[in-house]
Amino acid sequence: MESEKPSEGRVVAFIDIGTNSVRLLLVRINPNGSYKPLTKQKESVRLGDKEFIDRILQPEAMQRAVIVCKKFVELARAYGAEEVIAVATSATRDASNKVQFLEMLKSEANLEVCPISGIEEARLIYLGVSSGLRLGDSRALLIDIGGGSTEVSVGGDKQYYFLHSFNLGAIRLTNMFLPDETGPVSMERYRMIKAHIRRKAALVIKELSRYRISCAVGSSGTIENLARIAFVYLHKTGQENYDLLGYEDLKTIVGDLCALPLEERRKFPGINSQRADIIIAGAAIIETLMEEMGLSEIRVSKRGLREGLLVDYLSKSEFSYMITQMSVRKRSIMQLGLACHFDEEHAHTVTRLALELFDSAQALGIYEFEKGERELLEYGATLHDIGKFLSYDNHQAHAYHIIRESSLPGFQPEEIEIIANLAYFHRKGTPKKKHPNLAGLEKSSVKSVRILAALLRIAEGLDRSHTGVISHVRFYIASTDTVVLEMHARKECQLELWDLEKHKKFFTKILGYNLQYKTIIEQGAVPFSTLEEEPELEST
C-alpha cells in the first residue's frame, strides 16, 4: 500500500544582486522543515562597472542587471515560487542613483529589492558560510571578497562575535588602480594596491587579532577562482580539490598573472576569463589579509549570501529549532532524512540502540574504537532506511546512492562514504573487504564500516517490528570468548530475536567474541536457548 503523497510545501526564491554578479537560489521548503534546492543560477552583470569614481550606476549596467533579474523572477514563478526575497549589496547601496535602479527593478522585473548595509551583508554571509562548516566551539575567520566590498566575520557554529564590511572589492580597486589596463601589471602597481588595502584594513585587523581563530574560510567567486587557478596551474596531484588556497601558491600565481597582458591573462590555466580583468585586484585583497593575519592557507566555501538568506528565512519560521538547536552536521542529516520522508521514530529507535551497543562495547573494552566513529554510527543509523523513499526492494542500495550524491554540509567526503556504506550494509550482504563499495576507501575507513555495520545490523534487527519493543540494551562479558547482549523489552519480542540470530556470525567475525543474549521483560528475566547457562547479571 502506497503512503499518502506528502504536501509539496512552498517554493521560495532568494536573489542576491551583487556588484559583479546576480545570484539566484530557488528552494522548496517542505511541511516537515526539510528543504530541497531546485536550482542555483548566477549571471555576471558588472553592475558596479565604472561606478566607484563618481558613485553613479551606469545605464548599461543597470539594464544588464534588470534583464537578468527579470529572467530569474520568471524562472522562480515558473517553479511556483510564492515568495521572492531579493537584496542588493555594495554597488547599489553606494550609488547616488540607487532609487532609480530600484524603481527599474520594480517596474521592469516586477521585483521588490531591499538594499542592505555592509554589516547586514556580513551577517548574512556568516549565516550562509557557517551553515556548511563544522566549527563546534572553535572560531573561524570568514572572508568574502565581492566586487565592491569585502566582508569579514568571526564566529562559531551558533553565533558570530564580530562583523565588518570594507569598501574594498575586486571591481572597486580595479576601477581605482587599473582603469582600462590591458597590459601587464607592474609589481610596483600591485604593491600600491596592497598598501591601500593595508591602510584601509589596519584598525579592523588589529581588532581581529584579539580573537583566537582556529581557521580561515573564504567565499565568493574571486576566492573560488584563485583556488582553482592554483590547482590547475601548479599541477597538483590526486583528487581534484579546490577547497584550499595556500599563501605561497597565491603569491606564485599572482606574480605570473601580473606579468601577462589582459588578453593572455584570459587564457591562464584555470581562470574564469570573465574575471581576468579584476582577478589581480581581488587577489591583492586576500593576499594582504592573509599576510596581516598570518594565514598560511584559507579554506574555500561555495556558500555565501544567498544561502545566508535561506538560513535567515528558516530561522524566522516555525522550523527555527533546526537552525538554533542543531549542529551543522546533525542538521544536514536531519534535512536529508526529512527530505526522504523517513520513518523518524524507527530511525531514532535504531540510533539509540546502536549507540547503546557502541557505548557498552567501548566501556567493556571489547573493541578499541577510533575517534569520531560513534558520531558516524549515529548518522548512519539515522539514515539507514531512507532508500525506502524510492522503493522497499533493495532500499539499502537506494540509501547508499542518495547519501553519496547528497550535499551534506559539515562532512568530509570520506565521512560521507562511511555513512553511505553503513546504510548499504545495514541489511543483506555484509561488508567484505573487497566489496566494490569499499574499493576507494582508506583502510581505516573500511575498518570503520565493518565494525560499525556489525553494531548497526543488530540495532536495526532489534526494532524489526518498528514498535520500539526493545527499550534498552547492553553487553557484558560472560567468559574470555563470549559476550552476552542483555535486552530490556516492553513485551515479547520473538521477531527481533529471530532477526538477531542472523547477525551473530558477522559479530563474532568482526569483534572476535561469541554472542549470546538474554532478555528482561518488565521485572522478570527470560533466558533463551542460546545461553547454555544463564550468567549472573552484573549490577547496574
Can you tag this structure with a few keywords?
5-stranded mixed sheet, Nucleotidyltransferase, domain 5, Hypothetical protein af1432, 540 residues, disordered N terminus, disordered C terminus, 6-stranded mixed sheet, elongated, alpha/beta, 3 domains
Write up what this structure looks like.
There is one protein chain. The chain is of the alpha/beta class. It folds into three domains: 10-116, Nucleotidyltransferase, domain 5; 120-303, 2-Layer Sandwich (Nucleotidyltransferase, domain 5), CATH 3.30.420; 328-527, Hypothetical protein af1432 (Orthogonal Bundle), CATH 1.10.3210. Helices cover 45% and strands 19% of the residues. The chain contains 20 helices and 15 strands. The chain has helices at residues 59-78, 90-94, 98-108, 118-130, 170-177, 187-208, 221-233, 247-258, 262-265, 279-293, 305-315, 320-324, 328-339, 344-364, 373-383, 395-405, 413-424, 443-461, 494-501, 504-511, and strands spanning 10-17, 21-29, 35-44, 81-88, 113-115, 140-145, 150-155, 160-166, 215-219, 244-246, 297-301, 470-479, 482-489, 514-521, 524-527. The strands form three sheets. A six-stranded mixed beta sheet has the order 8-7-6-9-11-10. A five-stranded mixed beta sheet has the order 3-2-1-4-5, with helices on both faces. Strands 12-13-14-15 form a four-stranded mixed beta sheet. A hairpin with a 4-residue loop joins strand 7 (150-155) and strand 8 (160-166). Helix 4 crosses helix 11, helix 5 (170-177) crosses helix 10 and helix 18 (443-461) runs antiparallel to helix 20. It is elongated, with a radius of gyration of 28 Å. The model is unreliable at 1-6 and 524-540 (pLDDT under 50).
